[in-house]
Amino acid sequence: MRTIRFLLQKEFRQIFRNKSILLLVMVMPVIQLIVLPLAANYEVRNINIAVIDNDHSSYSQQLISKITASGYFRLTGYDYSFKDALHHIEADKADLVLEIPHGFERNLVRENSQQLFIAVNAINGTKANLGGAYLGSIIRDYNDDIRLRLTSQAKFNQVPVIQITSSNWFNVQLNYRIFMVPGILAILVTMIGGFLTALNIVKEKEVGTIEQINVTPIKKHHFILGKLIPFWILGNVVFTLGLGVAWAVYGIVPQGSLALLYCFTAIYLLAVLGFGLLISTYCDTQQQAMFIMFFFMMIFILMGGLFTPIDSMPDWAKTVSRFNPLSYLIEVMRMIILKGSGFRDITRQLITIGVFALILNSWAILNYKKTS
Amino acid sequence: MEALQIQHISKHYNGKTAVNDVSFSVSKGEIFGLIGPDGAGKTTILRVLTTLLLPDRGSATVDGLDVVNDYKQIRNRIGYMPGRFSLYPDLSIEENLNFFATVFNTTVEENYHLIKDIYVQIEPFKKRRAGKLSGGMKQKLALCCALIHKPVVLFLDEPTTGVDPVSRKEFWEMLKQLKQQQITIVVSTPYMDEANLCDRIALIQNGKLLSVDTPENITGSYPDTLYAIKAGNMHHLLKLLSTWDAVLSSHAFGEFAHVSFTNSNINEAEVISHLQQQGLENIDLKKITATIEDSFINLLNN
């Protein structure tokens, strides 16, 4: 016990003397949590649209003003031919082209039907998709308006219409920030825990202090625990800071039990630290450790279900993401914070992460040899 | 009583032999030197003895304990100072010392008498971080940390490499004092002149032991009569000696050439007159006793 106490004392001294690391641990999560959710916006605004109005009627004017008034679109071109409009797309000045045919108003009134043409610049997939969808719904809306105006009341009622009303559970206003913040916090906790541990033991190897430690009677598990505990505490501090920012800046208060959230994070941190340790036992320099850790972090983050839902991935990717500890944290964070899930709901994830922690740490201890 | 014993130790790295069938033993309270050029295998031997490296073949005991099976007990009884400074650079002198005392389950006070003479020299800087110390001070701190748990055997890997001549001298003085405390010291060094400061030495080259003996016996067993020759034109002299068939061996040693002849009873006057005939002037010739370096070169040539 005494040995562990002194190992911890030494480790904390070193951490508190390394001002830049300390700053990184404390300031990075706060800044990233404030900046990233604001920037990582799923809602697409300021879509540039070029319109070719061949009709010049009051109806076409109404449609155009309805589009620009929605707030999503910016009219950047008012052309006379599709060719001109295409130039706008080529010059990246327009994302969408809407062509209103000649006789739009007349045909709509007389023949009860008319067609519009939309061309989408699909280089930026998200923008194109959403822009197309927004435009589609605006036109549909406009269409309903016209039908209401043109069709007699009685006749209109005869048309069977299915009214769809949806309500968003757990995130009533579909606020993407409420959805993103827990996920980003999960990534931050993982990065700080994983990187710090991986680099720490390798640093001892690089500086040569590990030689001196290896000839002492310090036991393997004492040494590993001496490394794990400080970073485990740091991880929890970062997590607490992050929750504080989520509450103070975004007003996100966990719906579920805070104790359960900490309990899961505690076990999760053990798994991530174990992973960092494991990497450090295979590396000789901080550079190697850094790149290997980066490799895994990229996979963890991009396949963790934060940016793209795991359910929509192909089967092989789903299998891979089952071995991704981060995906469990993101999932559980959202479940507890947004949905208020209880212990029973996250038992499966809790057990899985527990197994991860056990395997990774045992592997790291086995692989850390004092004798070569 | 033997403090440590090595029997037929061999170690290979990726097919390259680092140490080949080395055997020797060190008595208690001895300063034992492992002398050899860089890459001779000194560090490998020390790492086997400090239980950091498993030998491919052979066995070794330290203080009667086997380095493979009883490594845990050995680690309690030895002190090791690696060739590279390997204390925590971000901890102060005091903190490093306390840390290493603690991991050996002892305190600085308990064994302060062992390190007192060395520690007082660095004590004024005890709040300074180890990384900010000068080379000599780092060395002293490393020695203190290796001694703080009162080891039975102290292993020093090239402790004087890269240290200035004055500090080197001081360092050997410290080792002599430690010897008084009945600590066995195994020290490796590439400097031949430090060999004479050891009680016994092992000469190593390419992983093989050339000789293990006291420095006096090694130089005493130099087989030939050795002469030191100096002349006005040294370059010419050396060239001449290397082609002369009466010469057995000749090497440049500072301002002299150390020469032995095939005929060990050669007349000094004859040698001088031969050299003068070849156009050399200011010839100075004297009989000398061999140094460790002479013996080393001689052993290498055989």
Q: What is the CATH C level class of the largest domain in chain B, in words?
A: Alpha Beta
- Portion in beta strands of chain A: 5-15%
Strand order of the largest sheet of chain A: 2-1-3-4
Pairing-aware structural class of the strands and helices of chain B?
Answer: alpha/beta
How many angstroms does the end-to-end distance of chain A come to?
27 Å
What oligomeric arrangement do these chains adopt? heterodimer
| Largest beta-sheet characterization of chain A | 4 strands, mixed
Query: How much strand content do the residues of chain B show?
Result: 25-35%
How much helicity do the residues of chain A have? 55-70%
Please tag this protein with its features.
heterodimer, A: 372 residues, abc type-2 transporter like fold, 2 domains, 15 helices, 4 strands, 6% strand, elongated, B: 302 residues, Rossmann fold, Alpha-Beta Plaits, 10 helices, 14 strands
Describe the protein in words.
The complex is a heterodimer of chains A (372) and B (302). By secondary structure, chain A is an alpha/beta fold. Chain A has 2 domains: 2-40 and 172-367, no CATH class; 47-158, abc type-2 transporter like domain (abc type-2 transporter like fold, 3-Layer(aba) Sandwich). Chain A is 68% helix and 6% strand. Chain A has 15 helices and 4 strands. Chain A has helices spanning 2-17, 19-39, 58-69, 82-90, 104-111, 125-150, 153-158, 176-207, 209-214, 220-250, 258-282, 286-302, 315-321, 325-339, 347-367; strands at 47-53, 73-79, 96-100, 117-120. A 4-stranded mixed sheet of chain A has the order 2-1-3-4, with helices on both faces. In chain A, helix 1 (2-17) crosses helix 10 and helix 10 packs across helix 11. The longest helix of chain A is centred in the middle third of the chain and has 32 residues, at 176-207. Chain A is elongated, with a radius of gyration of 28 Å. The two termini of chain A are 27 Å apart. Chain B has 302 residues and is α/β, with parallel strands linked by helices. Chain B folds into 2 domains: 2-219, P-loop containing nucleotide triphosphate hydrolases (Rossmann fold); 222-301, Alpha-Beta Plaits, CATH 3.30.70. Helix content of chain B is 34%, strand content 29%. Chain B contains 10 helices and 14 strands. Chain B has a 6-stranded mixed sheet, sandwiched between helices. In chain B, a hairpin with a 2-residue loop joins strand 12 (247-253) and strand 13 (256-261). In chain B, helix 3 (93-103) packs parallel to helix 5 and helix 4 (112-122) runs antiparallel to helix 5 (135-147). Chain B is elongated, with a radius of gyration of 23 Å. The model of chain B has no long low-confidence stretch (mean pLDDT 88). Chain A binds chain B through residues 2-3, 6-7, 10, 13-14, 17-18, 207-218, 370-372, and chain B through 50-54, 71-72, 75-76, 78, 80, 82, 84-91, 95, 98-100, 102-105, 145.
